[in-house]
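To illustrate the input format used throughout this study, we show a single complete record. The first block contains the structure-token representation of the backbone; no residue identities are included at this stage. The design step must infer an amino acid for every position from geometry alone.
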């Protein structure tokens, strides 16, 4: 790409990196360093610290002196958990950009993460809410690649899928301005997770979720992860335990309540699907059996769909 063309694209591609931090000093420097080497250079970092008791704020301030005070901003988070922290960032109208990228404090971005995301997003009409997301490659706490990846999904993203499954982490997500403005309308809500909420809301209004099968970040696995790896026997056992214990049902109560508040923004088809989802959850056993065997919702894998159908029948969803 010629120098003038790259400059023109970057001028029209301001990216606000929304970084939520809390006691992240151990790994934060590596994450910040991965911002510096991005092939797309037109970015700024908006870090919302949720009351860290370690050196996290000092690390951000030191880095701010290094990369420029006009490129880094340190905000005070709401201190109500990581979802509320990200929601406060997405709803902050003082953060002006063309694109918005969620970031955790302990991952490492691949060098072309932003450039690749913007290439996909620029192909979508600017008034259509769109979110880029991708798979992840796992690293251990020391930053060594483990040779494992997040699941590869092949079925198309949709609201029917988003109602029953989250397919990508927010740490991979980049939003266009239309998607950010949509999410900002509901920033006062506290969904179960901001990534699942982005998937539900954007597809619910007829927007686009772009799933990249190529990883864009190195996802660090360690005991302090707020949200863990979504694969392996341990993860499957945890999901089964949540299912039988009613954990998914509790999550779905929150999801339905949040989408109910957003109902004025949904398409007619999405409102129909949401109403059908609510009806299945409240039906008698005989009707739940029929609904569990035949419904418009789908997960990305055969085993996942069996589990979903069982959850509907058992009244655990």
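Output of the design step:
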């Amino acid at each position: 790409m010629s120098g003038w063309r790259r400059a023109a694209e970057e001028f029209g591609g301001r990216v606000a990196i929304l970084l939520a931090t809390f006691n992240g000093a151990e790994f934060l420097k590596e994450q910040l360093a991965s911002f510096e080497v991005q092939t797309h250079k037109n970015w700024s970092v908006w870090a919302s610290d949720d009351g860290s008791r370690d050196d996290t704020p000092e690390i951000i301030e030191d880095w701010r002196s290094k990369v420029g005070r006009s490129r880094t901003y340190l905000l005070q988070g709401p201190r109500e958990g990581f979802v509320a922290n990200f929601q406060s960032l997405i709803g902050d109208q003082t953060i002006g950009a063309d694109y918005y990228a969620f970031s955790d404090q302990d991952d490492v971005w691949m060098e072309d993460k932003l450039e690749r995301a913007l290439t996909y997003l620029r192909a979508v009409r600017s008034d259509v809410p769109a979110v880029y997301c991708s798979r992840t490659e796992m690293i251990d706490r020391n930053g060594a690649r483990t040779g494992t990846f997040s699941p590869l999904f092949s079925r198309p993203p949709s609201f029917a899928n988003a109602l029953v499954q989250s397919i990508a982490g927010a740490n991979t997500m980049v939003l266009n301005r239309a998607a950010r403005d949509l999410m900002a309308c509901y920033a006062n809500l506290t969904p179960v997770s901001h990534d699942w909420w982005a998937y539900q809301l954007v597809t619910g209004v007829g927007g686009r979720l772009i799933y990249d099968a190529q990883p864009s970040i190195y996802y660090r696995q360690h005991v302090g992860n707020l949200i863990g790896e979504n694969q392996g026997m341990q993860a499957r056992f945890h999901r089964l335990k949540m299912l039988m214990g009613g954990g998914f049902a509790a999550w779905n109560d929150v999801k339905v309540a949040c989408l109910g508040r957003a109902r004025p923004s949904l398409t007619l088809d999405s409102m129909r699907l949401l109403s059908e989802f609510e009806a299945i959850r409240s039906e008698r056993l005989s009707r739940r059996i029929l609904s569990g065997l035949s419904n418009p919702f789908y997960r990305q894998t055969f085993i996942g769909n069996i589990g979903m159908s069982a959850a509907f029948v058992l009244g655990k969803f």
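Structural context for interpreting the output: The radius of gyration is 20 Å. DSSP finds 13 helices and nine strands in the chain.
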